[in-house]
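[User] Once you have settled down, look closely at the record that follows, and write a paragraph about the fold.
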Amino acid sequence: MIRLKDTRLQSTASILERALRTAEYYGFTPLERALEGGKTQLPSQKNTALSFARKDERPLFASARLCLSVKRNPGDIILLSRLVKNTTGAPSYTLELHVVGAPAAIAEALLIVVVSGIAEDIGVSDRVLTINSIGSLESSNRFVRDVGHFLRKHLDSIAPALRPRAAEDPLGTLIQLFEKGHPSMNRAPQSVEYLTEEERRRFWDLLEYLEISDVPYELSSSVLGSRDVWAHTLFEVSRKDEETGTRVPFAVGGRYDPLATRLLGHPGVAAVAAITCEIRGKSKTTPTRIASTPLYFAHLGAEARRKSLPILENLRREGILVEQSLLHDRLQEQMDRAKRKKISHMLIMGHKEAMEGTVLVREMATNAQEAVPVRELTSYLRRQKVRV
C-alpha cells in the first residue's frame, strides 16, 4: 500500500487524480464510462469452485467479470480503469488497470510502464519491480506437482498449522512459506524452469520491453499465484520502508487468462495491474477526460513497438498528449483509428525508423512528412506548434 507520507503529495485525492490522468493518457477508459454503452451478458459463474492461492485474488473475480462484460466483439482490445474503495482492512483505494483482448507481452509491459509512471509522478522512490512467469496451465501443473514433492520432503520443518494445507494446496503453501521467509525456500522449485521454449521467448519479450523502457526489474521465484487465475506473467512493485528496511508491496498484477476464460465461457485473454493507496485527507475524486490531441503515434513491426514505449513515456513526461494503438499489430488498423479521430499529425515508427532512431512526423492535410530524431522529437513538436 502507498502511504501518503511516502509521496510528495498532500492528499489521497491528489494521488488518485494523477494516477487516473496517467492511465487515461495511455488509453485506459474509466469502467463507469465504458459501461454507459451497456454490458454483454456473461455465463453465470460462482467463485466458490476456484482455488485462490493469494488473498488479493478473490476481489479480482468481480472486477474481471465487469471488465470482460464491456467486450463486444472477439477482436476488440479494451483498456479499462476501475477505482475501488476497500471495505476490509485499513481504509484504502485500489486503482485497477485492465487490458482485455491483447494476448502478447506488450499488454503486461504497458501495465508495468503505467504503474512505474504513476509511482514516479507521485514521488514513490526506492521502488522495486519483481517479476516471474508461471507459463501455461500445462507448465504450471508440472511445477506444482514438483512443489508437492518438495513440501513432503520438508514437512517436518513446516509449522504444524500449515501442514494440512501442504497436501491440499501446494502452491498456496509455498507462497506462505516465501512470505514467512522459510529457510528452505532457496531450494524450492522455480516456475521459470518449467517453461516451454515458446513460453520462455514470450517472457524474454516482456523483459526486453522493460529494458528498452529503462524499467529496472528483479526476477523472483516468490511472485506466484493460483493456476485458476493466472498464466504467464506475474509481477509486484514494492517500496522500501525506511523504518524497517523491508519491502512493502503497493502494486500487483499479471495475466489472468484462465480466469477470463472461465468467466467468458470460451478462451479469453486479459491482464491487470492493481495499485493500492491509503485514505488520508481529501480522498474524493472523479475521473476527468483528457483533452483531445492532434497527435497519433503509429508503429509497424516488433522492433518499432519495442522502441515506442519509452518515446510515449517521454512525451507524457513533457506534457505532450498523444494517442496510440500499441496493442494493435496492423498499421492500416492504426491509420483507420487515427483518421476517425481527425488528428492533424501522425507520428509513425516503422522498422527502418526504429533502427535509425527516428520518427516520421506526417501532416495529415498535406501528407508532407519529415524524419525527426527521437531525441529531438519533443522540441520539434513544440516548434511546429502541434502539441495541445
